[in-house]
Amino acid sequence: MLRIKAMFVLGLLCLSSDAGAQSLASRVRDLAEPLVKTERVMGMSIGVISGGQRLTVHVGTVAKGSPRASDETVYEIGSISKVFTGLMLADAVATDRMRLDQPAGDFLPEGVEMPRWKNTAITLRHLATHRSGLPRLPDNMRDVASDNPYARYTSTQAFEFLKSHSLRRAPGAEGVYSNFAVALLGDLICRDAERSYDEQLRERITGPLKMDATSVELSDSMRSTMATPHDAGLNATSTWEFADLPGAGGIRSNIDDMLTFAQTNLDPPEGDVGDAIELAWRQHQATTGSASAMGLGWHVAGDGQTRWHNGGTGGFRSMLMINRDQKIAVVILCNTSCDAVDALATRIMVELANANDASSASETPVEVDVALEKMKRLEGRYQLAPTFIFDVRVRDGKLMVGITNQPTHQVYAKSETEWFYKVVPASLAFKMGADGKCMSLELLQNGIRQTARRVE
């Protein structure tokens, strides 16, 4: 359960658009196999939904000298578990058992109090959106550096931590990614329902969706198909077990079930599960500082459309990305602790979007002339993320746009504030303030919009 980057950025401007030239499965395999050949991962299962297609690709092996994975191979999904915990909260809210702005302390056992900041209480929404003010991990968690760090940390210890902890910031004021907060949220939901986490998960989510290979505890059939976990050096390592707080990272699943989950989020069904999915999908927290906007459990990408979460345990890595506008989704489950999985999922997602947008990309806009002084108003640096900055300058009467670690290209005017690239199918729209100064620019590519704010 590694800490994620605060803002997710699709690297749209530096990727090819040749996905349509090959079959989707072979293209995914071409992108994934280099990670196996360069010994960065032992094996992976990749699921893709696009254009009505649902397919899986498996590369590498489940262990040294073992066969390739199958659709039934089970992996730890790590922090993607937080999406399921967020969905469990959404279900409790949609069925009137909880309220998002209800103090989380209402659900603690007698004698345990949630820390407060002056008169501000931590709410269930704060726990689900990483705005609680609680730390990433509690300071009474003794096995953090072990191969199995959560196995002996219990809810009793968590409550002892709450009794002694003082908040350093007001709930809601700042985003700090917290495994502890979401693990606590899962416990509170299940205490209220008088169910174990697995029982609540099965009754409210995985049972109705027929996801029989998704749970914390392994069934006999899941155990028989469990992949061997590997550390970054491809050495076999321990699975991660959870005493009684699995809500932040304890779920195991296979690629078939996770694709079912992705498809259900693309097109929610009628009924309680669909209502919960819709509620969890909504943005419940805007971006604050470097912390991303959030649904309930979901991170909201800079385009405002893509929902995503990654996960990492000692020997597994995972990524889930879904975009309803494009009707595409990518799931990667990997039996190696390797953060390159995130970049691979991003690459596949962008190529799917490129393929969807290929028809409109062939239409070239009509160029117009823009006076030099009006071009000058657009000059500046615009930040999409700390490592993704547009540098806009006028050179020799041309508007040139550079991007961090990428070449500088000329853009061409459709109007005084709308400009387009010729080297890639992308455009920029500059947003002007009341004082005539440009405040931000919006990148549009592959149907995805992302806003970069002016920083200088």
UniProtKB/TrEMBL annotation:
> One GO biological process from the UniProt record?
response to antibiotic
List GO molecular-function terms, semicolon-separated: beta-lactamase activity
Pfam families (alphabetical): Beta-lactamase
Q: Name the EC number(s).
A: 3.5.2.6
Q: Signal: present as a keyword of the record?
A: yes
**Belongs to which family?**
Belongs to the class-C beta-lactamase family.
Q: What is this protein called?
A: Beta-lactamase
